[in-house]
Amino acid sequence: MKLYESAATPSCRRVSIFLNLIGAQVDRVSVDLKGGENITPEFQAKSASGTVPLLELDDGTNISESVAICRYFDHQVPNSANLFGAPGLESAQVEMWHRIVEFQGLIAGFQAFRNITGFYSDRENCVSEWGEESKTRAIAFLDKLDARLSHSGFLAGDNLSVADITGFLFINLMKGAFKVDIDEGYSHIHVWHTKLGAMPEFQ
Q1: Which residue in 22, 103, 163, 167 is a FRET match for 199, CA 20 to 30 A apart?
Q2: Cα separations (Å) of 43 from 2, 7, 15, 52, 53?
Q3: Which CATH number is 116's domain given?
């Protein structure tokens, strides 16, 4: 079994943090995104989305998309982390907040970064105006995130979940790429982000 990744990307970090939290190990293969290794015919033949991370099983089956990979390991590796939530209400709340954070936060941040920086301008049409609009939307989402965390220790309730992993990576992107001052402007996010960042699995 091999996990193809570019370790610094949020999607690959999501899988790495998830694996850390459930105590799973897998062989890693580094993929050069800037050099276009993920758009070669060989890689495209493996990945349904043409992106990393990509999990290649021993029988040749391939699983792309980070959340799908996390779900696979969650079922395959005995663990009590319940990162997708216990069956019933808790799993529904995890799914709800995970989708909210991903669609309204992380994806907007991705679009902002890609279109403003032109990181993949050799293979996609980058629209700076859309990047700036996406950045505005991502920053606006911080108010909703901060409000949620004013009522709950974690995003989906009382327990750590995959929604927190995604939210943590979103905040890292906002702090790193866009220099948003989380510490001063969003006190509840700051407390939550600091708590997660202190956990060895998130480092």
Answers
A1: 103
A2: 13, 17, 19, 10, 11
A3: 1.20.1050.10
* Same-domain pairing of 103 and 152: yes
- Range list of H helices, the chain: 10-22, 41-46, 66-76, 89-100, 107-117, 128-149, 162-178, 182-185, 187-197
Query: The tokens of 143 are what?
Result: 């108010």
Cβ neighbours for 63, distance < 8 A, ≥ 6 positions apart? 54, 55, 57, 69, 72
Residue 83 lies in a domain: no
Phi and psi of 12, rounded to 5°?
A: -70, -35
Q: How far is CA 2 from CA 15, 69, 89, 130, in A?
A: 13, 12, 34, 36
Which pTM was predicted?
A: 0.96
Band of the pLDDT at 56, cuts 50, 70, 90? very high
Give how many domains the chain has, as a whole number: 2
Residues 95 and 61 in one domain: no
Query: Which letter, b or e, does each residue of 32-59 get, where b requires 16 or more Cβ atoms within 10 Å of its Cβ?
Result: ebeeeebeeeebeebbeeebbbbbbeee
Give CA separation, 76 vs 53, 60, 65, in Å. 18, 17, 17
> Residue 47: which of 94, 2, 109, 98 has the closest Cα?
2
Q: What mean pLDDT do residues 64-91 have?
A: 97
Amino acid at position 137, single letter: R
